[in-house]
Amino acid sequence: MTVATKSSAAPLTTRPQLRPITGLVNVLLSIKPLASFAKSRARKMMIDRAEDMGVYWRKEAAFLSEQNLEALRQQIENPALVYPDYYLTSFHAYDEGNLGWLPATEVEVAARAVHAKIWPEAKERGDQKLRDSFLDVVDRRIDQTQTPITAIVDLGCSVGLSTFRIRDRYPIAQMTGIDLSSYFLAVAMYRAAERKTQLKTVEPDSNQPDIRWIHAAAEATTLDDNCCDLVTLFLVCHELPAEASCEIFREARRILRPGGHLAIMEMNPKSEIYAQMPPYVFTLLKSTEPYLDSYFNLDIEQALIDSGFNSPTIDCNSPRHRTVIARAAETAIS
Ligand SMILES: C[S@@+](CC[C@H](N)C(=O)[O-])C[C@H]1O[C@@H](n2cnc3c(N)ncnc32)[C@H](O)[C@@H]1O
After folding, report:
1. Ligand 1 atom closest to the CA of 84, numbered from 1
2. Is the CB of residue 222 less than 8 Å from the CB of residue 214?
3. How far, in Å, from the CA of 107 to the mean position of ligand 1?
4. The pLDDT value given to residue 218
5. Atom 8, ligand 1: residue with shortest CA distance
């Protein structure tokens, strides 16, 4: 793993590069029937490719959709929650964005398929490897003799992929997962129950605390001041306008104890992969990730300092991802 604080590659979006093919892609994407046709072709190709490498997309998503997830969704849903406007849009080529059963039942397989390409040799284990590479940086960067990690909040936890991997590293910490999608949280609760049953068979006396799931915005977690030692944001900031990321950093600072840490795992705008990506491919990517430009142009180090953190460390944990770790300044929130 390389340690990178700075890289010579400029963020992709700051370079003037609107070539004819990019313009053409933009025009095609603005014509609704063409965009829908392209989307459904791309979706079929992605699913077929995933299945070729052993991610049984259709079968696994169908299995999940047959479980009684709606009951779990109703249990977790906060009917008073007001969704931020930026959230109520299409993401990842799902018209319903993150608020529906199709995206919820496909998150796990999609993550395994997409992350299979990070390290060619890892194939469908790429997703786990990505999560582990993040946690390795967390282990290395946070001196637990100074700040023991006893309570963790995973913001934007989705169906729990990040939360469960973190839980496996910190088996007795208090864990909280927060997300705006009650559909995703329902899947997380289903998986948590499954994991609990498995744990009871191998370790009947296990005292592992249950994960607490909360349907809330990461900007307004509803948690107490100074209540945790580690806040994680795993692949969340690229789905946010920069101002929302900054608001979430301030909320993370509020709920962290002084000296606690915020750990962010994200796409690395300075990686060679994005710098060398043909602009029309980046345009296609942006058509499924509405806030990518905003994220790529965010000065994350400065934003963290402005939100009450010390200067962060930044490590490359994959050829195209970075882990940013910032320590909450010592002054307690009063
Ligand atoms: C790409 S997913 C990443 C999920 C998860 N951390 C993982 O590692 O698989 C981003 C998640 O952030 C959630 N999200 C986006 N904006 C949010 C906000 N303001 N508050 C809470 N969750 C948010 C989305 O609903 C989605 O589940």
Report:
1. 19
2. yes
3. 11
4. 98
5. 162
The CA 179 to ligand 1 mean position distance, Å, reads 6
Number of domains comprising the chain: 1
Name the residue with the closest Cα to ligand 1, atom 26.
158
Residue 95 lies in a domain: yes
Q: What are phi and psi of 318, to 5 degrees?
A: -155, 170
**Domain membership of residue 132 as a residue range:** 12-327
Residue 86 falls within a domain, yes or no? yes
Residue having the nearest C-alpha atom to atom 1 of ligand 1: 235
Give the CATH number, domain containing residue 165. 3.40.50.150
Where b means 16+ CB within 10 Å and e means fewer, 27-56 reads eebeeeeeeeebbeeeeeebbeebeeeebe
Query: Which residue puts its alpha carbon closest to atom 3 of ligand 1?
Result: 235
Q: Is 3 helix (H, G, I), strand (E, B) or coil?
A: strand
Residue 312: CB partners within 8 Å, gap ≥ 6? 300, 301, 304, 324, 325, 326, 327
Positions of the chain with pLDDT under 50: 1-18, 333-334
pLDDT number for residue 135: 98
